[in-house]
Structures are given as structure tokens and as C-alpha cells.
Amino acid sequence: MRTAVIGGGIAGLAAAFELEKARAGDAAVEYTLFETGPRVGGSLASELVDGIVLERGPDSFLTEKPSAIELCRELGLENDLVGSNDAARKTYIVVHNRMVALPDGLMFLVPTKLIPTALTPLFSIATKARMALELLHPPRPSQNEDESVASLVGRHFGPEAVDRLADPLLSGIYGGDAAQLSARTVLPRLVEMESQYGSLTRGMLAAHRKMHAKAPANGAGQSKRAPRPIFTTLRGGLQQMIDAVANRLNPESVRLSTAVSALEKLPNGWKVYSQGAAEFYDAVIVASAAWSAGVLLGPVDPLLGEELGGIPYSSSITVNLVYDETKLNNLPDGFGFLIPASEGRAMLACTFVHRKFLGRTPPGKAVFRAFLGGMKNEALLTETDAKLVATVRRELKEILGIQAEPEHTQVSRWRRAMAQYAVGHQERQKRIAARVANLPGLRLAGNAYDGIGIPDCIRLGRRAAKELLAETVAIEV
């Protein structure tokens, strides 16, 4: 079986890794990984600067989703896995230039502790009263129609909770807008809780009790297992994972700086056009962004191309700033802060990297990692690096009082890199799956379909390769 993998981001790399494993045991398995750029890895890119690990794109992945950790273990990187410093985890919301800590007992978007919620300056008295009365919400029958996250959260906790909680939290994850993101896709647990309990607070408390009831008892002689860190990364940066996968692949099977210009469906396979030549493949895994996949697949299936092209994307900018820690004012405890869109700032969020992951920054150095862009401020991508750094420095001065000159700065732009799970996303995915099912030998992988994070992309890439390999075995049998 000859398979073309189009796109060398982490999803495409994961698919190629699975195919390489099969090739090692079966000479009949061949693959080619096509990557438009000069390197593989997509937005996963790390640099080491004076002993400091700087991430240009994502800095970690969720520990509870196993695919990334499993891949790292297969690559021999288990000893380099680093968990987040959750003992120091504290997140702030910026309100009128003031850092306000998220109240204790907040489970994602749902307040579950009365006193901390009542005392926090994050919300007005009217919003706090609404949060208390939310306990009285009756169960809501399952709805056939999807709605936005803003609609769901606003119905329960009011518009201020959307502005100061839902929007900044989700903007930090998706770079998106709570008024556009699908509640059914992004917050499926809350949708289920509303249907069963009515009150999201009661639903979250019930889920918390069930989780503790299922936890194994700490009997005599048993050591209590430490909780898993929320986030995991690699000691040398996520580039370690990219390099390790790339080193496992057959060098002759990887084509960098090689764009695929067209795809053609044949009765017995696919023709892949690249650099003026056409090659036959039995199967194709399209692991590029959905908008790019739509361009390639539109001539094959116009409806599929239209659906893929209809998935919205946001762009983002990361700005890393390295400081001499002794020249900073007293920095608040915690991992960093989020900024609501209503604050009118360029920054969406800022992470205190040296606090989040210990051991990746030398003593005496502080690293700030600012995020800009998102759905509401794409125009920032046209600004110069100097202008973006100056903007971040000005906002850090206004929020944290930092006036020191950074020792090093780094700006990275990621155009149309983050898929947005807009209202109706699940229905769109069903339509896409139905069209793909009618095109034998085709699979799609990436962050536009069933999970936005690194583990999801790895899972989807490896699954695509496994499914195609299994189909080949079934045909041969």
C-alpha cells in the first residue's frame, strides 16, 4: 500500500510514524509525507536561548488525554516529560488594569463554592446573586439545535460571566469568541449537566462527588498517589517530540518544501500532483488545515470542499520576553493572567513561563509569554515585530508595572492555524464524514475535526493510518 500524507504538522507526523512502524515489518507498505514548509512540526517549534526553552507555538498538552504521552514513551522520551507546577497554579483576570484571581472552587466556568464566589471582586453583586439563584434552574430538555457558549453561560450566570470568565478562558484555548463557539462541541459536559440537573453548579458538584466516590481508598500501608499535573511538556521543549518522530521516519519518504497542488480520485486509488509531476497512491491522508484540504478536495467532491472551507480559523501571535528577574517588581503568584476583550487590549493572555514549568529556565531569569490576535484582532499580524514587542511591553507596564528592558524577545505569527468549533460544528462534521465515506482511501486529520489539542491531533493522525492499514489487510484477506 502506498499512502500520501499531506501536511507535516503533528497530525501528519503521527500518521507517518504509524505508517513507518508498519513499513518496518512489511516491505509492501510505502508512504510519502508532503510538507509545504522547510521543516516539519507546524506550530510546534522550540528554541534554546542561553539555556532557556522558548516555545514559539503551544507550550504543553493536557495530561489527561493520553495520546501525546503515549507517543513520547514510544519515542523514548518518558524521562524528559515535565508536569506543570500546579502547586503554584493561580490564574488572574485583568479588570480595569487590576489583576483579580479566579475564585476558589471555580470548576472551569462553574462556581461551586459560595463564600469565595461571594467575596471575589471579579463579579458585581448582581452577577453574584444570579450565580446563587442558578442553583434553582430546572432541568432543560435536550435541544436539537446547537447554541453558542455565550448563550449557554449567559443563560445561567449572566453577561458579566461571559465577558469576564467564558470569553477570556476560551480565547486562551481556542483564540476564539464565546459568541461563536459551539457549546455542544466545546462544553459537552455542561450541556449534559443542564439537561440532567438544570443547574450547572449542582451538576458540577454531583460530578465532583462521583469522581471522589470512584477514587480508590487510601488504605493502611498504601501511599497516597500524587495527583497528575494538569499540563505536560518536554524538558527540551515540544520540538523534542517533533525531532524524535522525524528521526524515526524514512528520510526518503519525507519531502520538505514540497506543496501538493492537486488531488485526483481514480477508480483504484489517488493521483497526487506536486511540483509538476503526478504520482499514484492507494490512499491519501490530508492532514493540512481544513481550508487547505478544502482547496485540494473541492475538485474531487465540491460539497466536501465547501464544508471543509466553511470551518473558520483564527490566527495568533506569541511574543516571548526574557528578563533578569532581579529587575522586575514583585510579580504576583501564579501562572499568569487572561484579559477580557472588553478591556480593549492587544494581549489576550500572558503566561509566567518560568513558574508554570520548573527546570526549563535558569535561576534568576523570568520568561513572559504573551498571546495576541485571535478572531477579534487579526489585523495585528501585519504589525512589525518591534511594534508588537512595544505593545506587549506597554501593556505589561500598565498591568504589572514592569519597566525593565527585556534581555531577549521573540515574535512568532501563526496565520489561520487554529480551527474554530463554531455553532453547528458537530453537524458539519457528520456531513464531512458522510462525504469522506464515499471516497475510498481518503482520511482527514488535524485540529479541525474532533479535538483542538496536541493529543487529539496525534490520536486522529495515528487512527487515520491504522484504519487505512486495516482496510488493506481486509482487502488482501
Number of domains: 3
The 3D shape can be described as globular
Number of strands: 22
Q: Count helical runs.
A: 16
Task: Name the assembly state.
Answer: single chain
Q: What fraction of the residues are assigned to beta strands by DSSP?
A: 15-25%
**CATH homologous superfamily annotation of the largest domain:** FAD/NAD(P)-binding domain
**What name is given to the CATH topology of the largest domain?**
FAD/NAD(P)-binding domain
Poorly predicted spans: 219-223
Q: What is the end-to-end distance?
A: 14 Å
For this structure, what is the CATH class of the largest domain?
Answer: Alpha Beta
Using only C-alpha atoms, the radius of gyration works out to 24 Å
Main beta sheet: strand number and arrangement?
A: 7 strands, mixed
Q: What is the level-2 CATH architecture name of the largest domain?
A: 3-Layer(bba) Sandwich
Summarize the structure in words:
- It is a single chain.
- This protein has 477 residues and is α+β, with helices and mostly antiparallel strands.
- The chain folds into three domains: 2-42 and 241-311 and 421-476, 3-Layer(bba) Sandwich (FAD/NAD(P)-binding domain), CATH 3.50.50.60; 108-214, protoporphyrinogen ix oxidase, domain 3; 314-418, Protoporphyrinogen oxidase, mitochondrial, domain 2 (Polyamine Oxidase, Chain A, domain 2, Alpha-Beta Complex).
- It is 37% helix and 23% strand.
- The chain is built from 16 helices and 22 strands.
- The protein has helices at residues 10-25, 67-74, 114-119, 125-133, 149-157, 159-174, 183-186, 188-197, 200-214, 239-248, 290-297, 302-309, 353-356, 385-400, 425-437, 454-476; strands at 2-6, 30-34, 46-49, 52-55, 61-62, 81-83, 91-95, 98-101, 106-107, 110-111, 231-234, 254-255, 260-266, 269-274, 277-281, 283-286, 313-324, 336-338, 347-352, 365-373, 408-419, 442-444.
- The strands form six sheets. Strands 8-7-18-19-20-17-21 form a seven-stranded mixed beta sheet. Strands 12-2-1-16-22 form a five-stranded parallel beta sheet, with helices on one face.
- β7 (91-95) and β8 form a beta hairpin.
- α12 runs antiparallel to α15 (425-437).
- It is globular, with a radius of gyration of 24 Å.
